[in-house]
Amino acid sequence: MNYVLAKINKNIGKRDDKHKIILTDKELYSIPDTLSSSTEYSMETLIDTYEWYKIESFSTKPYCLQFLTSKKDSTSYSKLEISDSDCISYICSCQNNNNKFYFQKVSKTNLATKKWIHIGDIFEFQNSSKNITINEIADAIYVKNNDVLYFKKLETITSIFKGIEVLYKEATEKETKDFLEQNFIILENNFNFSNVKNSNRKRIALAINALNSFEDKQKNVVFDYIVDYCPQLSTTEKKFKIASEKDLELLSYGILQRFYTTPTGNEKRIANSVKKF
Amino acid sequence: MISQIIFKILLTLSSTFLIATIYFIKQEYIFFCLNNNPKWVSYLIIALAPLFLSIITLCCKKFLSTACIESLPLAIGDATNSFLPSYLGYFFVALSINSDQTFWWIFVILFLFVFHSQTIYFNPIFLIFRYKFYYVTTSTNKKIFVITKIELSEPNDLVNIKLKSINNFTYIGI
């Protein structure tokens, strides 16, 4: 029988398994046709919008959820009280006799009360209506028979499967390590590649691309430009000392030439996003 | 929420009404309009009242949410015998009350306790409708209460049977 679980954030009960039932006997999602064209997750492989990433032998991974591998059914869970509906962080629809599990993240904005006009038999204005929008496609699908997890975006499911971002970290490890070993960087304060967090890893990827496109002369220009904006990073030998995430962030922004000064007021700024014209 | 509360009230009423029946019969009350008929007519009507309440309750179970035991339960046990004696205790209570006022007070207190506890689901009238009461230990070691018409002889009999959930620990067969 199909049933829908909700994961709640509040500390209800002593056990770690804070899943409760919200619906039974309803089918929320269906298997997408494009699931067969899925590739093993890797940061380098970018997929098209209709394709899926997959992780095989998912039950052996440390970030797999315990209830996926246990023999639970709808009687093993308690019902979620309506008053606790604000604490829902994601829902999981267990279909096909506990074989297929469809996950969807539920954001706080999704749960907020909305004003809308409900179109039913009549037009009805509902001042404080609470709904959970069910997307056409689930954020992640776990097929128990094959022990495979399918998903489209890793960022969406990091809050569902705690620890899965290690996949992204592993993928970028070599790149980050190589970047930090470049001759213009001096590491201080025991800062090394394992300290680098996701946001910086993304910037490093872009910075490496940018550096590779520069000739030596252009590199010198960029380095001078960085020294201009971040004098605290520079050393005497024309290198940059990196002691923290913040330093690394500034260096990457510098390589990406994101610093600028306003024409009036001489205010120094960092451009968060750029657009070519 | 409201429908759940109404359902709970119905269940509690249908389980505890037998006590009122016993009391009325003991006090030899008859319906005012049936003054000219023999006493047993009134007795019959009051005896049928809990029966009708139970029928209504059973009809209302279609509004409950569905559940299903899918993995093999660890154990099953008969629960009828554990509840029946305590239920019979209520009969003796009803038989020993002498005044109407006392009766209503006791009924209300009993109603409140039964409403908030699990025993509201034990209604001996269900036995007349061939329901049986079982304690089932599920595969996750959770002991639940199942009311079903199926005669269970082993845990496998309960797998994939559709049930309606009255609360987190009580289920009734369709």
What secondary-structure arrangement, pairings included, does this model have?
The complex is a heterodimer of chains A (277) and B (174).
Chain A: E1 3-8, E2 19-24, E3 38-40, E4 52-55, H1 66-69, E5 88-95, E6 100-105, H2 108-111, E7 114-119, E8 123-129, E9 140-143, E10 148-151, H3 154-157, H4 165-180, E11 185-187, H5 198-213, H6 216-229, E12 240-242, H7 245-255, E13 259-261, E14 268-270
Parallel strand pairs in A: 3-4, 11-12
Antiparallel strand pairs in A: 1-2, 1-5, 4-10, 5-6, 6-9, 7-8, 9-10, 13-14
Chain B: H1 2-26, H2 39-60, E1 65-68, E2 75-78, H3 80-96, H4 100-116, H5 124-128, E3 132-137, E4 143-148, E5 162-167, E6 170-173
Parallel strand pairs in B: 4-6
Antiparallel strand pairs in B: 1-5, 2-3, 3-4, 5-6
What can you see in these coordinates?
The complex is a heterodimer of chains A (277) and B (174). Chain A is built from 7 helices and 14 strands. With 277 residues, chain A is α+β, with helices and mostly antiparallel strands. In chain A, strands 2-1-5-6-9-10-4-3 form an 8-stranded mixed β-sheet. In chain A, strands 7-8 form a two-stranded antiparallel sheet. Chain A has a two-stranded parallel sheet with strand order 11-12. In chain A, helix 4 packs across helix 5 and helix 5 packs parallel to helix 7. Chain B has a 6-stranded mixed β-sheet. In chain B, strand 3 and strand 4 form a beta hairpin. In chain B, helix 1 runs antiparallel to helix 2, helix 1 packs across helix 3 and helix 1 packs antiparallel against helix 4. Chain B is elongated. The mean pLDDT of chain B is 84. Classes of the chains: A alpha+beta (277), B alpha+beta (174). At the A-B interface, loops of A face strand 1 and strand 5 of B.
